[in-house]
Hints:
The chain has a domain at 169-248: Immunoglobulin-like.
Amino acid sequence: MSKKSGKVLTLSIEDFFKILGSIICVGIIVAFVVFIIVQESNALKSSKVDKINIGDSREQVKEILGEPYNENDGLFYEYYSSNYNKLMKEIEKKFGNSFDMNNEYSSVKDSIDKELEDAFDDLENEFKEMEKYEKKLKELKYDCTVINFDSEGKVQKIILEKNKRFEVESSEKQILNQELVTKEVKQNTPTDLVYKIEYGDGSLYKFIVKYGYINSQIDEKGNCKVQIDFSDAWGNKITEIQEIKVTK
Protein backbone atom coordinates (compact mmCIF):
# COMPACT_ATOMS: atom_id res chain seq x y z
CA MET A 1 0.00 0.00 0.00
CA SER A 2 1.53 3.26 -1.06
CA LYS A 3 1.52 6.31 1.20
CA LYS A 4 0.75 9.69 -0.32
CA SER A 5 2.99 12.49 0.78
CA GLY A 6 1.91 16.15 0.65
CA LYS A 7 3.90 19.34 0.84
CA VAL A 8 3.21 21.57 3.77
CA LEU A 9 3.16 25.27 2.85
CA THR A 10 5.13 27.25 5.35
CA LEU A 11 5.00 31.02 5.65
CA SER A 12 7.81 32.95 7.19
CA ILE A 13 7.16 35.86 9.54
CA GLU A 14 8.67 38.19 6.94
CA ASP A 15 6.34 36.92 4.18
CA PHE A 16 3.36 37.17 6.55
CA PHE A 17 4.03 40.83 7.28
CA LYS A 18 4.57 41.57 3.57
CA ILE A 19 1.15 40.14 2.75
CA LEU A 20 -0.42 41.91 5.72
CA GLY A 21 1.18 45.19 4.63
CA SER A 22 -0.22 44.78 1.11
CA ILE A 23 -3.72 44.12 2.47
CA ILE A 24 -3.51 47.20 4.71
CA CYS A 25 -2.32 49.38 1.78
CA VAL A 26 -5.22 48.22 -0.41
CA GLY A 27 -7.62 48.88 2.47
CA ILE A 28 -6.25 52.40 2.94
CA ILE A 29 -6.58 53.16 -0.79
CA VAL A 30 -10.18 51.87 -0.89
CA ALA A 31 -11.06 53.84 2.24
CA PHE A 32 -9.52 57.00 0.75
CA VAL A 33 -11.46 56.60 -2.52
CA VAL A 34 -14.71 56.04 -0.60
CA PHE A 35 -13.94 59.12 1.55
CA ILE A 36 -13.41 61.30 -1.55
CA ILE A 37 -16.66 60.07 -3.14
CA VAL A 38 -18.64 60.66 0.06
CA GLN A 39 -17.05 64.09 0.55
CA GLU A 40 -17.92 65.15 -2.99
CA SER A 41 -21.46 63.81 -2.59
CA ASN A 42 -21.90 65.75 0.67
CA ALA A 43 -20.82 69.02 -0.93
CA LEU A 44 -23.58 68.70 -3.52
CA LYS A 45 -26.46 67.59 -1.30
CA SER A 46 -28.92 70.30 -0.28
CA SER A 47 -29.41 68.67 3.15
CA LYS A 48 -25.67 68.94 3.80
CA VAL A 49 -25.14 72.37 2.24
CA ASP A 50 -28.10 73.70 4.24
CA LYS A 51 -26.15 72.98 7.46
CA ILE A 52 -23.90 75.91 6.61
CA ASN A 53 -25.13 79.14 8.14
CA ILE A 54 -24.60 82.73 7.10
CA GLY A 55 -21.74 83.98 9.30
CA ASP A 56 -19.93 80.61 9.51
CA SER A 57 -16.14 80.62 9.11
CA ARG A 58 -14.09 79.02 6.33
CA GLU A 59 -13.03 76.29 8.77
CA GLN A 60 -16.65 75.48 9.59
CA VAL A 61 -17.47 75.18 5.89
CA LYS A 62 -14.61 72.73 5.38
CA GLU A 63 -15.73 70.68 8.35
CA ILE A 64 -19.13 70.23 6.71
CA LEU A 65 -18.28 70.02 2.99
CA GLY A 66 -14.60 69.08 2.97
CA GLU A 67 -11.81 70.66 0.95
CA PRO A 68 -13.07 72.79 -1.99
CA TYR A 69 -12.08 72.27 -5.63
CA ASN A 70 -11.15 75.97 -5.80
CA GLU A 71 -10.52 78.36 -2.91
CA ASN A 72 -10.13 81.56 -4.97
CA ASP A 73 -7.94 83.37 -2.43
CA GLY A 74 -10.51 82.65 0.27
CA LEU A 75 -13.15 84.85 -1.37
CA PHE A 76 -15.36 81.89 -2.29
CA TYR A 77 -15.16 78.10 -2.21
CA GLU A 78 -16.25 76.00 -5.19
CA TYR A 79 -17.29 72.34 -5.19
CA TYR A 80 -18.11 70.43 -8.41
CA SER A 81 -19.56 67.06 -9.37
CA SER A 82 -17.18 64.33 -10.57
CA ASN A 83 -18.05 64.67 -14.29
CA TYR A 84 -16.92 68.32 -14.25
CA ASN A 85 -13.78 67.56 -12.23
CA LYS A 86 -12.85 64.70 -14.57
CA LEU A 87 -13.21 66.80 -17.72
CA MET A 88 -11.26 69.73 -16.24
CA LYS A 89 -8.42 67.38 -15.23
CA GLU A 90 -8.32 66.01 -18.79
CA ILE A 91 -8.12 69.57 -20.16
CA GLU A 92 -5.42 70.55 -17.67
CA LYS A 93 -3.36 67.43 -18.46
CA LYS A 94 -3.62 67.99 -22.23
CA PHE A 95 -3.29 71.77 -22.46
CA GLY A 96 -1.97 72.97 -19.10
CA ASN A 97 -2.78 76.65 -18.64
CA SER A 98 -3.00 77.33 -22.38
CA PHE A 99 -6.66 76.25 -22.70
CA ASP A 100 -8.74 79.31 -23.57
CA MET A 101 -12.30 79.07 -24.87
CA ASN A 102 -11.92 82.51 -26.48
CA ASN A 103 -8.98 81.54 -28.71
CA GLU A 104 -9.62 81.95 -32.43
CA TYR A 105 -6.83 80.48 -34.53
CA SER A 106 -8.31 81.72 -37.83
CA SER A 107 -7.61 85.35 -36.98
CA VAL A 108 -4.04 84.48 -36.02
CA LYS A 109 -3.34 82.46 -39.17
CA ASP A 110 -3.58 85.45 -41.51
CA SER A 111 -0.73 87.18 -39.73
CA ILE A 112 1.65 84.20 -39.79
CA ASP A 113 4.56 84.31 -42.24
CA LYS A 114 4.70 81.54 -44.87
CA GLU A 115 7.91 80.04 -43.52
CA LEU A 116 6.13 79.42 -40.23
CA GLU A 117 3.30 77.38 -41.82
CA ASP A 118 4.57 74.04 -40.53
CA ALA A 119 4.76 75.32 -36.99
CA PHE A 120 1.33 76.85 -37.38
CA ASP A 121 -0.11 73.52 -38.58
CA ASP A 122 0.77 72.04 -35.20
CA LEU A 123 -0.78 75.04 -33.50
CA GLU A 124 -3.89 74.71 -35.64
CA ASN A 125 -4.26 71.05 -34.66
CA GLU A 126 -4.00 72.03 -31.01
CA PHE A 127 -6.71 74.63 -31.46
CA LYS A 128 -8.94 72.00 -33.09
CA GLU A 129 -8.38 69.77 -30.06
CA MET A 130 -9.30 72.71 -27.84
CA GLU A 131 -12.50 73.19 -29.82
CA LYS A 132 -13.45 69.55 -29.21
CA TYR A 133 -12.98 69.98 -25.48
CA GLU A 134 -14.77 73.33 -25.58
CA LYS A 135 -17.77 71.56 -27.12
CA LYS A 136 -17.65 68.85 -24.43
CA LEU A 137 -17.50 71.51 -21.74
CA LYS A 138 -20.45 73.46 -23.16
CA GLU A 139 -22.58 70.31 -23.48
CA LEU A 140 -21.78 69.13 -19.95
CA LYS A 141 -24.41 69.33 -17.22
CA TYR A 142 -22.94 69.30 -13.74
CA ASP A 143 -23.66 70.27 -10.13
CA CYS A 144 -21.77 72.89 -8.18
CA THR A 145 -21.78 74.54 -4.78
CA VAL A 146 -20.36 78.04 -4.29
CA ILE A 147 -19.83 79.55 -0.84
CA ASN A 148 -19.12 83.31 -0.79
CA PHE A 149 -17.25 84.95 2.09
CA ASP A 150 -17.05 88.57 3.22
CA SER A 151 -13.81 90.45 3.99
CA GLU A 152 -13.73 88.92 7.48
CA GLY A 153 -13.92 85.36 6.16
CA LYS A 154 -17.55 84.81 7.16
CA VAL A 155 -20.12 83.10 4.92
CA GLN A 156 -22.20 85.68 3.07
CA LYS A 157 -23.97 83.63 0.41
CA ILE A 158 -24.57 79.93 -0.32
CA ILE A 159 -25.55 78.60 -3.76
CA LEU A 160 -26.03 74.95 -4.72
CA GLU A 161 -26.91 74.71 -8.40
CA LYS A 162 -28.04 71.47 -10.03
CA ASN A 163 -27.67 70.80 -13.77
CA LYS A 164 -25.50 73.83 -14.38
CA ARG A 165 -24.19 74.54 -17.90
CA PHE A 166 -20.75 76.05 -18.49
CA GLU A 167 -20.96 79.72 -19.51
CA VAL A 168 -24.69 79.36 -20.19
CA GLU A 169 -27.12 81.64 -18.40
CA SER A 170 -29.35 79.53 -16.18
CA SER A 171 -33.08 79.58 -16.78
CA GLU A 172 -35.70 80.16 -14.11
CA LYS A 173 -35.98 77.36 -11.55
CA GLN A 174 -39.20 76.14 -9.94
CA ILE A 175 -39.38 77.21 -6.29
CA LEU A 176 -40.29 74.40 -3.91
CA ASN A 177 -39.96 76.12 -0.52
CA GLN A 178 -38.98 79.59 0.60
CA GLU A 179 -38.60 81.14 4.05
CA LEU A 180 -37.10 83.96 6.04
CA VAL A 181 -34.53 82.09 8.16
CA THR A 182 -34.18 84.94 10.65
CA LYS A 183 -37.17 84.53 12.97
CA GLU A 184 -36.19 86.95 15.73
CA VAL A 185 -34.35 90.26 16.06
CA LYS A 186 -33.30 92.37 19.01
CA GLN A 187 -35.00 95.73 19.35
CA ASN A 188 -33.03 98.65 17.88
CA THR A 189 -30.10 96.35 16.99
CA PRO A 190 -28.96 96.16 13.34
CA THR A 191 -29.46 92.58 12.15
CA ASP A 192 -28.77 90.87 8.82
CA LEU A 193 -31.90 89.04 7.68
CA VAL A 194 -31.22 85.65 6.06
CA TYR A 195 -33.48 84.13 3.42
CA LYS A 196 -33.51 80.60 2.00
CA ILE A 197 -35.05 79.08 -1.14
CA GLU A 198 -35.22 75.39 -2.09
CA TYR A 199 -35.93 74.41 -5.70
CA GLY A 200 -37.60 71.47 -7.40
CA ASP A 201 -34.36 70.22 -8.97
CA GLY A 202 -32.51 70.11 -5.62
CA SER A 203 -30.84 73.53 -5.91
CA LEU A 204 -30.50 75.76 -2.85
CA TYR A 205 -30.00 79.50 -2.35
CA LYS A 206 -29.29 81.03 1.07
CA PHE A 207 -28.24 84.66 1.43
CA ILE A 208 -28.65 87.97 3.25
CA VAL A 209 -31.82 89.62 1.96
CA LYS A 210 -31.48 92.74 4.13
CA TYR A 211 -28.27 94.07 5.70
CA GLY A 212 -28.35 95.73 9.12
CA TYR A 213 -32.12 95.66 9.38
CA ILE A 214 -33.59 97.71 12.24
CA ASN A 215 -37.21 97.00 13.18
CA SER A 216 -39.49 100.01 12.88
CA GLN A 217 -43.02 99.44 14.06
CA ILE A 218 -43.76 96.73 16.65
CA ASP A 219 -47.31 95.50 17.20
CA GLU A 220 -48.93 94.57 20.53
CA LYS A 221 -47.69 90.97 20.17
CA GLY A 222 -44.10 92.11 19.88
CA ASN A 223 -43.80 91.43 16.14
CA CYS A 224 -42.80 93.62 13.23
CA LYS A 225 -43.45 93.31 9.52
CA VAL A 226 -40.63 93.12 6.96
CA GLN A 227 -40.98 93.91 3.26
CA ILE A 228 -39.07 91.33 1.17
CA ASP A 229 -38.34 92.29 -2.43
CA PHE A 230 -35.58 90.71 -4.56
CA SER A 231 -34.73 88.48 -7.54
CA ASP A 232 -32.95 85.19 -6.92
CA ALA A 233 -29.91 83.81 -8.77
CA TRP A 234 -32.15 82.36 -11.51
CA GLY A 235 -34.43 85.29 -12.20
CA ASN A 236 -37.37 84.47 -9.94
CA LYS A 237 -38.91 87.65 -8.52
CA ILE A 238 -39.85 87.42 -4.83
CA THR A 239 -42.11 90.04 -3.23
CA GLU A 240 -43.73 89.40 0.14
CA ILE A 241 -44.25 90.65 3.69
CA GLN A 242 -42.84 88.58 6.55
CA GLU A 243 -43.36 88.84 10.30
CA ILE A 244 -40.47 88.67 12.79
CA LYS A 245 -40.42 88.45 16.57
CA VAL A 246 -38.79 91.43 18.31
CA THR A 247 -37.09 91.00 21.67
CA LYS A 248 -35.74 93.65 24.04
